Amino acid sequence: MTASDIKLFQPFTLGGVELPNRIVVGPMCQYSAVNGVPNDWHMVHLGQFALGGAGLTLVEATGVNAEGRITPHDTGLWNDEQEKAFARIVAFHKENGVGSIGIQLAHAGRKAATRAPWVGGGPASVEEGAWPTVSASAVPFADGYGTPSALDAEGLARTREDFAEATRRAVRAGFAVIEMHAAHGYLMHQFLSPLSNRREDRYGGSLENRMRYPLEVFEAMRAAAPASVPVGVRLSATDFAEGGWSVEEAIAFSRELEARGAAYIHVSGGGLVPHARIPIAPGYQVGFARRIRAAVSIPVITVGLLTNPADAERVLQEGAADLVALARKFLEDPRWPQRAARELGVEVPLPKQYGYAISPRWQESAQAQWGEAAE
């Protein structure tokens, strides 16, 4: 296989946005914001991916309102201060990155108001900044978690508009891509799964009814963004639990999203219930992506411990997905795309400040300037 045959580094058009390669930095919560406002930590954290060469970087799950945050320390996008802070991060990425930057908009539902994982996780106390949670139904996530309130008509309308308003703010901040979070047991997923949705109105019961509210929210987001900004969806393809959300239902949901203008489907799994049995291994989510990709005409992003460049390339060569997302691997190796390119025999552009310094021309320039070989 020649370098030109390597798909991982072939350009890709995602809903009109030109990406230089098919590598995606998945959203990773940092639990480091103050009142929802991203700060210098987020600038450096996300900036390293701009310099690292990924085709698309997705900002962590960002609450569309205060009650929708996973922890009191999550980023948010419901006020001007948050919007301004994100605009600064986007500007850096546009000026210095080779790829594009997007944001994942989310509401945690019954999994909200928890502690940061490094202080033990689990439900936070009122003294730690907790608040009452909401969900599709009054069914707690697990023992020890508070019972959420089932969203009523007013709450449904308000939350739907919060997603739309956050989308408008994301557009103004300059994000190239916007993603609705409907995975990992958060609010949209809570409506989709029969394990968490026990409603008896038009939003519960049948698959059509359980999909109704997430589809309404997506439609509101899609209407709030200009056609030039792709709006995609991350979903869990399965609950990995008996009687739960299934890949067949995820396929149906993906088709409905495509019909409403979704730019892509970002396929993950699990997160709805703590007793799920997940067979974690490299590529364990790829089969779900393959099935969804075969059922829709829009691009599909896959995830699942694809940290070996050869494995990521194989997924694309086999047609299981159109793009490959990594998350935690980027924390230990923010320049993973550059390492992957070397391993696969592909040359990729680097920021000018780095590219020149490690090129053969640097040695020549140093000798000419200093009259001796530089170390």
Q: Helices, strands, pairings?
A:
Elements (H helix, E strand, L loop, with lengths): L11 E3 L2 E3 L3 E3 L14 H13 L3 E8 L16 H17 L3 E7 L27 E2 L13 E2 L2 H21 L3 E6 L4 H6 L14 H18 L6 E6 L10 H13 L5 E4 L17 H10 L4 E3 L6 H9 L5 E4 L1 H5 L3 H9 L7 H4 L4 H11 L5
Parallel strand pairs: 3-4, 3-12, 4-5, 5-8, 6-7, 8-9, 9-10, 10-11, 11-12
Antiparallel strand pairs: 1-2
Helix pairs in contact: 1-2, 2-3, 3-5, 5-6, 6-7
Give a description of the structure.
This protein is of the alpha/beta class and 375 residues long. It has two domains: 3-344, Aldolase class I (TIM Barrel); 351-375, no CATH class. It has twelve helices and twelve strands. It has helices at 40-52, 80-96, 153-173, 187-192, 207-224, 247-259, 286-295, 309-317, 328-332, 336-344, 352-355, 360-370, and strands spanning 12-14, 17-19, 23-25, 56-63, 100-106, 134-135, 149-150, 177-182, 231-236, 265-268, 300-302, 323-326. An eight-stranded parallel barrel has the order 3-4-5-8-9-10-11-12, surrounded by seven helices. It has a two-stranded antiparallel sheet with strand order 1-2. Strands 6-7 form a two-stranded parallel sheet. α2 links the parallel β4 (56-63) and β5. The longest helix has 21 residues, at 153-173.
